Amino acid sequence: MSEPAPHDPRAAQRLDWTRAALGDAAAGLERASTDAGFRSYWRTTGAAPSRIVMDSPPDKEDVRPWLRVRDLLEAGGVRVPRVLARDVEAGLLLLEDLGGPTVAQVIDAANADVHMDAAIAQLIRLQSLTLPEDFPAFGEALLQRDAGLFEDWFLHRHLGITLDCEDAERLQLAQRRLMDNALAQARVPTHRDYMPRNLMPVADGPAVLDFQDMVLGPIAYDPVSLLRDAFLSWPEARVEDWLRSYHARAMQVGLPVPAIGDFLRDADWCGVQRHLKILGIFARLHHRDGKPRYLADAPRFIAYLDAVVPKYRELDPLHELLERTVKPAFAKVIS
Q1: Whole-prediction pTM value?
Q2: Dist CA 160 CA 324 (whole Å)
Q3: CATH class held by domain 103-334
């Protein structure tokens, strides 16, 4: 039996559009998942096979950047969801249903090598794409915005810290060094959230999701996003083995990776820059958007920073800031 038409105008529009796109007046929708933005995903019910409706309310999230990047990825041989019907003005897409669990939900210590091997192979395809000349780049402005997220949302809003002059100088110096490192790296297509929860374990995959923010960016960024994940942690020795495997395969296909020692440093530094940014994003999701669950993973990022920052004398200002100011305040918040 089909579900009754919802009373919410957007829900009613979504259901009516889905039934028309499928040619099935009895089709229903059930929630499949949400993401950290305004986009939502719905699985069709009724006649098989099921499909996924991606709902991007046009007043909140333009669907066209997602479609543009999807088409570029598919043309380059990267496995992405297939689009079966679209209404760009309404912000509604009908997609193939890739199944329920993401790689993040099925990966474990026993099968991680298999999943990471497939994820690295797909990443190398993505990084090998030739992008249009007008494609956005991971430049100074984007890095400055990322840096501001940590200070504005995690330090000020979440921890209640107002940096004194010395701490402000420490943070600015560390952020400048991280930015300079990112800007000095060879540039390739960069997903910016290439991690297991954005990969689907299909036979010809993994299929890549949440790619709409792709830019031309530093070559170490996506490998470290995959292996020092926002929601999963692995022993550092295993992470280094995977980074070395990625590096060898990237060299084989002619990607512009530096010597292995420099690459491992670049991955570490990109990871630090990313971890600081995500702490800011998670704090913003909690305080601005009413999504508190992401902050539960904040201790993971502090642990990542503890593992990497002390290895580099150039990052001593950040180490001092973390030890003197950030970690004591963070301990009070989570206690």
Answers
A1: 0.89
A2: 15
A3: alpha beta
